[in-house]
Amino acid sequence: MFRILQARLQQGHRTMRYPDGPPPPLPDRFRGRLLMDRARCPDTCRACADACPTTALTFPTPTSPRLDLGRCLFCTDCVAACPTEALGHLRDPQLAARDREALIVDPTVPADRLEVAHAALSAELQRVFGRSLKLRQVSAGGCNACESDLNVLSTVGWDIGRFGIQFVASPRHADGLVLTGPIPDHMALAVQKTWAAIPGPKIAIAVGACAISGGPYAGHPEVHDGLPGFPTTGDVHTNDDASPLDEGHARGTGGASAIPIALHIPGCPPHPLTILDGFLRLLGRLPAR
Amino acid sequence: MKRQDLPTIRNAQATPCARLPTLSGARFRDTVLRAIEGGSRVSALLTLAPDAASPTLLAVLADDLAGHLALVQGRLEPGEAFRAMTPHAPEVHLFERELAESGVRVEGHPHLEPVRASPPAATRFVTLGGDGHEVAVGPVHAGIIEPGHFRFQCLGEDVLQLEIALGYQHRGVERAMVSSPHGDPRRRVHYAETLAGDTTIGHGTAHALVMEALAATPAPPRGQAIRGIGLELERLANHVGDLGALANDVAFLPTASYCGRLRGDFLNLTALVCGSRFGRGLVRPGGVGFDLDAVRRDELLDRLRATRADLRSAIDLLWSASSVLGRFQETGRLTRADADQLGLVGPAARATGAERDVRKDFAFDLYRFVHVPTANWHTGDVFARAYVRQLEIEHALAYVEDQLLTLPAGPTRVAAPLDAPLARDHLAVALVEGWRGELVHLAVTDADGRLARYKVVDPSFHNWQGLAHALRDQAISDFPLCNKSFNLSYAGHDL
Ligand code: SF4
Ligand code: SF4
Fold first, then answer.
1. Does the CB of A44 have a partner CB in chain B at under 8 Å?
2. Which of chain A's residues have a Cβ under 8 Å away from the Cβ of B290?
3. Which sign does the torsion angle of CA B416, B417, B418, B421 carry?
4. Fewer CB within 10 Å: N-end or C-end of chain A?
């Protein structure tokens, strides 16, 4: 017992003060959203888009690049391919957005165009979930990196329980689904059943490039390219009471029968701070900026 | 063919396919079985052209003592069935299921059930009947864990048999790695890095070694050193996390919470090197994507040393608790013979007294010059699997420190363009000791120097069978603890 106390003293108090205090320091090489300095781009150069493994970075017209944060792996391939060092990563961890469309940005615009203000739930859902949000996590083809950085939020340093957010063992105890992975065919039924087993009102959160767009596996016939447009039912429907409180239905993210997504958290994997920031903003516990 | 006549290669080497004689199906089988009898391990067994009317089989046999890989190739006649080796060599049991799943006719196998490509729900489990009952768990589990299905056959509280059905995570990686019809070379490193996300650097290194062998562009020494540091930091983060998770499963919360945090400290050290906690972007064919300047190296050293002190106190505490030892000792026991027969690798094998470690037996990169002592223990139980991890943590800390102090000068990468031609009609194999054990990447090129076949063997492929075996005659309530003591990858198995 004495040794336990002694060790306890040595280890000290480790829970961060964030968001009341400063956030945990990010590494100087942290890779956030890409920023492109068009002034440096040689005419007709497309080296960055050509190097991109997921078509996250494209040139819909020769002069206007487009960046889809939902597809981006934050992988440095485009940065390395650029002959003039016109590309770099911002160090801002704030990436989550409520709408899929808000993740599609102009990489030449330095000001943050992510509509994070819209990350907040409706007042009604905030009243219901703002102080207590129980989440069921399902990994459907996730590589275990997104899963690991979700798990980290429950360790002493982050202690996500401080905010009333908790990962629970049964969908019956849950207010929402947190999905990682591109949803392989072999997991499709399990995802539908889990969603159906969560009582309404309920929300769904897509964490990581896989869950938002299929990530590195986008387009594979073995997977479903993540949660957007993923049907709530195929063979299964038990408890899918699409109450008007369900976020996303009204916004038509993927047809009436798609699992509605309340929050998209980009990254491969997203940093724990990016995930926490997204959760807190969703619940209205961080100010919109 | 006699064992000494088999063509051999060293780790991370390419060889012309023409060097491999093509044996008949029966000769192939005899040769492989004789090599296994002689002490070789099957690192990989695959078919090269699964769709062909007469499939070509290839076995990679690891001779741990000699430090080389023997290659055996055979071809089945059209319509010929392959007689299963599993009855004589249980370690190939899952490999042969894989052959069958890819279209080879396999005969005489005791249990040809799905591996990953066909829906796991189709598995026909072995049932006991009589007084026994079944417990089915998964694919979705009660935590933030990847999916898989466990089917226990129990008598009361005791597990008589556990069968593990996987494949829920199947994303088609091997198919997409090859050039045609759909593969995109730009995605290859990302497939490697996300095969098992907690083994980003391990799989990244194995992929890099295979591609470097085929392109004849070995990484410069500084690149090798930095990815070696990354590989050991990955081992540290995962081993420390596992010790915490084991403590948590026996409700010893101090060590559980300290190790949970310390694991994060190691992930953050990897992020200091490359910006990603999991080492995404660190390893690239030809070397590494990030250099370590002097300031960064010093910070890494300082933080490593500070973490070490906290870590020692957290682990010492674990061993000072008799309640922990009581739960760890003699739980989930495997013998050395079990480990050899099942072909186990990594800490799970070393916890039964086995000596195998790719870093020693098939040294790659800078491990050829700087040796890491092999850690093992003989009791084969949860305690041994935890204790081996602790020893490996100590060795890895020393290795990283040593490497940081003696970092070679020079470039970090010799980059070949993605479309650079690879050696034509060649075959290359790379083995890496990831934190779970032996990672195998194998690639074969066609006559145009494009990838025609890519095979990955994650250590979990071997070791899931070890977990199933360790559960025999255990109380079902010990499953979480046993499971954690292996901590295997679903994504790495399912590809
Ligand atoms: S970071 Fe990678 S995924 Fe993102 S735009 Fe650049 S190349 Fe594409
Ligand atoms: S988004 Fe990236 S890190 Fe997350 S599960 Fe997919 S591959 Fe893994």
1. no
2. 29
3. negative
4. N
Q: Minimal CA–CA distance to A74: which of A57, A99, A60, A59?
A: A57
CB B249 within 8 A of CB B167: no
Residue B44 clears pLDDT 50, i.e. is over it: yes
Rounded to an integer, the average pLDDT of B321-343 is 95
Q: How many domains is chain B partitioned into structurally?
A: 2
Last residue of a domain, one of B85, B107, B129: B107
pLDDT for B186:
93
- The dihedral built from the CA positions of residue B362, B366, B369 and B373, taken in this order, carries a sign that is negative
Residues whose CB falls within 8 Å of the CB of residue B4, separated by 6 or more in sequence, listed in order? none
Which two three-digit tokens encode residue B177?
A: 């790695």
Is B347 a domain residue?
yes
Q: How far is CA B212 from CA A57, B282, B450, in A?
A: 28, 16, 14
Among candidates B149, B135, B124, B461, which has minimal Cα distance to A190? B149
pLDDT at B3: 58
Q: Which residues of B touch A184 (CB under 8 A)?
A: 168-171, 494
Query: How many other CB atoms are found less than 10 A from the CB of residue B322?
Result: 8
A289 vs B: CB within 8 A: no
- For ligand 2, atom 5, which residue shows the shortest CA distance? A142
Nearest CA in chain A to B300: A27
State the pLDDT confidence band at A237, using cuts at 50, 70 and 90: very low
Pocket test for ligand 2, best of B168, B188, B194 (most atoms within 8 A of CB): B194
Strand partners, B453: B444
Mutation target vs B (from A55, A139, A150, A178; most B CBs, 10 A cutoff): A139
Chain B positions touching A53 (Cβ under 8 A) are 184, 186-187, 190
Task: Tell me the C-alpha distance between B108 and B174, whole Å.
Answer: 27
Task: Tell me how long chain B is.
Answer: 495
Q: What contacts B65, CB < 8 A, 6 or more positions away? A: B39, B361
Residues of the domain holding B291: 182-459
DSSP B149: E
B369 and B240: one domain?
yes
Note the helical H segments in A90-207.
123-129, 145-151, 188-197
Cβ pairs A/B, distance under 8 A: 168
Best CA proximity match to B429, nearest among B3, B15, B1, B2:
B15
Q: Is residue B385 within 8 Å of B351, Cβ to Cβ?
A: yes
Q: What is the largest CA-CA distance in chain A?
A: 70
* Backbone phi and psi for residue A95, each to the nearest 5 degrees, phi listed first: -135, -20
Q: Residues for chain A: how many in total?
A: 289
CB–CB of B315/B390 below 8 Å? yes
The β-bridge relationship of strands A203-207 and A176-180 is parallel
Q: Which residue minimizes the CA distance to atom 2 of ligand 2?
A: A268
Cis before residue A269, ω within 30 degrees of 0?
A: yes
Enumerate the domain spans of chain A. 34-93+104-112, 117-282
Q: Which pLDDT score, from 0 to 100, does residue A241 have?
A: 36
Ligand nearest to the CA of B193: 2
Residues B68 and B217 in one domain: no
In the predicted model, is pLDDT for residue A238 greater than 70?
no
Q: Does residue B12 surpass a pLDDT of 80?
A: yes
Q: Which residue has the higher pLDDT, A152 or A12?
A: A152
Identify from A71, A186, A217, A235 which residue to disrupt to test chain B contact, counting B C-beta atoms within 10 A and taking the largest count.
Answer: A186
Task: Encode pLDDT of B427-462 as tens digits.
Answer: 999 999 999 999 999 999 999 999 999 999 999 999
> Is A165 an 8 Å CB contact of chain B?
no
Max Cα distance, chain B (Å): 69
Find, in chain A, the residue whose alpha carbon is nearest to that of B173: A217
CATH fold of A34-93+104-112 reads Alpha-Beta Plaits (3.30.70)
CATH number of A117-282: 3.40.50.12280
